[in-house]
Amino acid sequence: MRVTSAALPTDATATDDAELSTTETMDRSLLSAIAKSGEIEAALATDASRFRVLTGDRPTGRLHLGHYLGTLANRVRLQDLGVQTMLLVADYQVITDRDDAGPIAERTRELLTDYLAAGIDPMRTTIFAHSAVPALNQLMLPFLSLVTDSELRRNPTVKAENEATGGRPMSGLLLTYPVHQAADILFCKANLVPVGKDQLPHLELTRVVARRFNERYAGGRTVFPSPDALLSDAVNVLGVDGQKMSKSRGNTIELAMTEDETAKQLKRAVTDSDRNITFDPVGRPEVANLLTIASLLGAGSPEDLAARIGDGGGGGLKKLVTEVINEHLRPIRARRRELEADPGYLAGVLAEGNARANEIADATLAEVRETMGMTYR
Ligand code: TRP
Questions:
Q1: CATH classification of 247-340, choosing from 3.40.225.10, 3.40.50.1000, 3.30.160.20, 1.10.240.10?
Q2: What is the DSSP letter of 249?
Q3: Ligand 1 atom nearest to CA at 181
Q4: What's the pLDDT tens digit per position in 147-189?
């Protein structure tokens, strides 16, 4: 069924309505985002330059196949379509739920290396870091004035992230980071944000912040346009143990691994005792996951791959998937090694991206001060 957005609530109602339960709000905004995403894909095909995308990651470690297939490949696609793309290294977001920043400089360099190796082109995509763009961070102050503490407290993503820290008291930064994220998106007036379902509440809050800013501080003039979500096709790649792919589980295949490390990791992969390989996501989720990974990397449909392996069993499956991954990642890994050998180049890319982001942020902050009558200086 194709849902049209006309039949669904627009951003004017969803989050403001205190009567709605969190789940209802989620469902309504999910439906509306799905409908809208379809329209946006069509518009992207005809005029990509209308769009400015902002997206980003916390620099918490090397990127793995889950990131690559889930978001990174899509960012490269948008960039290559001609969308203006802003790519944020969300360093201040790292400290929302831990006691120290960790080896953040090294992790930022790793993230940058993964981006560039995977095809992000710094001539077309602006890569920058929170901590290097003061005016972006300053926007958080007026924005915080536009939300209530109860709106922040009922954010389902914040709640889930807080629970995942296992009883650690919630920091003020974790509670308010969705507002910081609104500043990430609005400082450059991005109109499109590629997100997974879990980030939809943040985007909804960004729209609320934009709308309230325009109403309360700008007399109804549109200083901040409301961004739309571009929902990714829910590619959900599992790790080699069949659980969610995540660094802490040690079940990832990192872009930075060698071919041998990849083979070793695949050897550990969970399969089952049925030697005849079939694509059965419900009955044989681990086998299906490996077939899906190979398929997403361009090796053919999961059914065809299964037929090709036939009675080869788990061993045959792992061998094929290892080859597909290593072949696909070979040029990315080669590029990665070149980049690693040139830290000066990497630092230059980030410095240039930061400079561009600062220009944009300074202009937006100046406009905000002007709008709010704060022009005495
Ligand atoms: N929250 C995102 C993550 O954990 C990173 C991020 C920060 C982001 N600011 C953003 C994503 C703005 C989209 C828009 O990966």
A1: 1.10.240.10
A2: G
A3: 9
A4: 999 999 999 999 999 999 888 999 999 999 999 999 999 999 9
Query: Residue 63 corresponds to which amino acid?
Result: L
Position 26 pLDDT exceeds 80: no
Determine what percent of the chain is predicted with pLDDT higher than 70. 92
- Centre of ligand 1 to C-alpha 93, Å, is 8
| pLDDT tens for each residue of 82-139 | 999 999 999 999 999 999 999 999 999 999 999 999 999 999 999 999 999 999 999 9
d(Cα 8, Cα 10) in Å, to the nearest integer?
6
51 within 8 A of 147, measured Cβ to Cβ: no
Closest CA to 297 of 265, 275, 326: 326
Joined tokens for residue 352: 């240039």
Whole-number Å distance, alpha carbon 87 to ligand 1 midpoint, is 10
What tokens were used for 222?
A: 């549109």
CA of 181 to the centre of ligand 1 (A): 7
Helices within the chain (DSSP H only)? 22-46, 65-67, 73-81, 91-94, 104-118, 134-138, 140-144, 149-153, 156-164, 172-186, 200-212, 259-267, 285-294, 302-309, 313-340, 343-371
Domains of the chain by residue range? 34-234+343-371, 247-340
Tens digit of each residue's pLDDT (9 = 90 or more) over 27-38? 777 888 888 888
Q: Any bridge partners for residue 128, and if so which?
A: 88
Average pLDDT for the chain: 91
Is the pTM for the entire model greater than 0.85? Answer: yes
Fold of 34-234+343-371: Rossmann fold (3.40.50)
CA dihedral 282, 156, 103, 79 (to 10 degrees): 70
354 touches ligand 1 (CB under 6 Å): no
Per-residue model confidence (pLDDT) at position 16: 40
Which of 52, 53, 57 has most ligand 1 atoms within 8 Å of its beta carbon, as the pocket-test mutant?
Answer: 57
CB 254 within 8 A of CB 64: yes
Ligand 1 close to Cβ of residue 56 (< 6 A)? yes
Where do we find the tokens 């974790």? 174
